[in-house]
Amino acid sequence: MAPRTGSYSIDATLDASTRTLTGREVITWRNPGGKPAYSIRLHLYWNAWRNTDSTWLTQRKLAGLAAEDLERPAADFGWQQVTELRLVNADGTPGADLLPGFRYIQPVDQNAADRSLAAADLPVGIEPGQTLRLAVAWRAQVPRTFARTGAIGDYFFIAHWFPKIGVFEGDGWVARQFFANTEFYADFGSYDVRLTVPRGWVVGATGREVSRTDAGSATVHRYAQDDVHDFAWTTSPDFVEHTQRFEHPTLPPVTMRLLLQPEHAGQEDRHFAATAAALKYYGEWYGAYPYPQITIIDPAWQSGSGGMEYPTLFTAGTRWLAPRGSNEPEAVTIHEAGHQFWYGIVANNEVSAAWMDEGLNTFSDARVQEAAFQPDYYVRRFFGGFIPWQFTDIRLSRATDYNYLDGYRAAARRDAPITPSYLYWPGTHADITYSKTALWLHTLERLVGWDRLRQALATYFQRFRFRHPTPDDFFLTINQETGQDLNWFFEEAYASANVYDYAAERLESVPVSTRGFGDAAPGAAPVFQETRDEARFRTTAVARRIGEGHFPVDVLITFENGEQVREKWDGQARWQPYEYLKPSRAVSLQVDPDRVLLLDVNYTNNSITLHPRAAEAADRWTLTWVVWLQDLLMNYAFFV
Amino acid sequence: MTVISAIRDGLGRVRRAPALVAGVWLSTLLLALGPAVVLHSQIEAHLGASLMAETATSGVNFDWWNEFLAQASGVGQTFVPAMLGFAAVLDNLDRLADQRPLPPVLAVLVAAQLLLSLFLAGGLLDRLARDRTVGAAAFMSACGVWTGRFLRLALLVGPVYLLLFLHVHHWLFDDVWEWFTRDVTVERQAFGLRLALYGAFTAMVCAVNVVVDYAKIRAVVEDRRSMVGALVAGWRFVVRHPAKTSGLYLLNLMLAALVAAVYFVLAPGASAPVLAFAVGQLYIVLRVIVRLQFLASQTVLFQSKLAHAGYVAKPVPRWPDSPAAEAILRS
What is the ipTM of this complex? Predict the structure, then answer.
């Protein structure tokens, strides 16, 4: 199904008591590029936590996010050390030793302290289409969780854990170091992995368990999967295993395997329902999930490994108290299950264009939540975050809440999405990667209609299934399939940090009147005249573009007699006046009344009514707030 | 006297002092009105002539709310969903329990509330201890007399509260918490520990509070000028009657919890703001009653042990009549 460019046969042993991992692997790599490869690149992601000067931690420090990480005890850091690196001859015998030429490289920032990417020269170049076999041995210290991989107590979540070959595209390697903002990029291949863990511990992993063999106090679990580009696994003695089957009239069946924390007993139905909804809707909208199984991991509390996707396996995340009627754990489960499509199957480069999976997936999971998990009430947690309170007055909506308009609004100018993801400001990268993309995709949906956008996304999915699409591939497909040249929108929403803010500037509606000098009898001096027509009204409406962003918007003027006039404004000028002579007064002016432009950061200013009710609203909310304040003051008064 | 009798008599005294209840309730309302006016103007200004006001009037417009918060400053930043219904109670307790910092505007209001409470404390205790009407002039006189003394008491006790809320809280909820839960992977276990820490911290705060309460009671009932002496006397009383003082305090706390539970059941949602305000005010009145009940029942207990019901050493101040009134009387 997929081009099997990088395949792995791995043997790994976990010593849970010392939190060390040792492994051997044989990588079979075919050069997919257009030129010979004279060296190799190996990702050693766990070295991002070898020291506090790694690029990963430096970026975190830059954004002020690393305070706790910097103070960790030695045992909580992680590292990876390659102990053997050699070619494997065609007959399986050991070939040239590459270790002497092994070196760490830092192509992006030349940070000598970073060891998350290594290179080694090859004795002979690997021609395009030719295959290389590489034997690698390594040992590693499992960190206390960084970037969703690591251990806490008896819970191990082991991801981006084996020396992994980079991606060779066109003329060379595109492998980069591990950055705080970014995830991964790898080629598709086959994985055959034997994991040795303490006997009696439950294992969940990418793919399907092929065999299980006890060996003394340990058990070897063998997992295999074709046509994936990564392999992650977890083990713990505490998991409770549940399985359920996803069935659908037109989609292939999928076995859903859930490894649940014991304290979340009773929430298995919620995990299965959310996963099934993702398989169903993504399957119907874009294309079928191609693997026979999917594994859902319920991470241990405090593990920091929740909400992450790997091929055929993902971590969800719930709480001991998770009120029904609020989408926790549904939202994260749908999102991570959805990544099987946008990341797992359509495998864009997450290091440079993370929006292509995170943004598309946020947009899609929001649609699923709206379709399958309503109502969804806002929840706020109190007392150390343990006690949830569900606000049944606040129902979350797809357009603004699931697309995270609030997050985007605060960070709208921080970065343009076209910026390579690893260069985003670390503190706000999610607001651009996830939120802005979801918002502009939803805007696109409202602009061209769901049917056309869905068809375009389905074509994109089918066209780039098991491939690595670029942003241009995406934009080209959307333009082709919608039959519209939408580059004007992409150039601004994607290629710039321009902010959109349209507003209703002015609305006035008065009886038609005229004062001034009119014509008198021929030859006579002009005569001052004053006319007033109480039966007709002159309505003046002005729409304004406050932000730098341009977007065509409708302008809707509503009159007292119910008549409505809808104007099309191209949204280019800074302001646009409209004038009407009507038998009725105007009551309101709305700019973008259907809220097509979800990227508009200030929608309150998009309308004007001649019968404003702001004071009434302020009365109402102030009354409610006063009780809260009195209660607060009473708490403190208690001490006097 | 039993603890139950103290509760009953305390409630009786509060019931016989409706003006106190009304006055304290009104003081909280008046204190809240100033910032409320500011918030009102901010909301009104943000909504302007927008149609968004339509939905903000008929229910929660969460989209507008977030937009408002994104640009709000000062009082406006405190206008958060947690103020809705019973969540307000949780939010405010959570702020104390987890020591969430007060925004500057709230810190100023809390300081004002503390000063107001300090000023009223003497008058309230004097009235509850006498268990008879003293008149507004005598009440204000007592407030004036005791403000200075209670300010000195606050200077003595303040550092203890600061120690508790700054250092002990930090130690419990940062150091101890981190130490115990660092490797815990079961949320339920962590929550159990959290509850235990809340319990321990509350017990410490209550222990200080009960001593301070009896210090104030002894100061007023025995007309003490030395606040060091009053504090020591309060401490002695608690130590000599540990079961009754702590039992009474605990029952009063349960009464407070009962009031919160009633509000939990009755608090309306955001769709009925006037009703929510009315029920909210009823809840605040009940909170005032409970606070006065703490003072009244503890005073009853003290008087039953070391004085007698209604005894206050300091006489009710009397002012001479005006010369005109004297002349009328003489005529």
Answer: 0.95
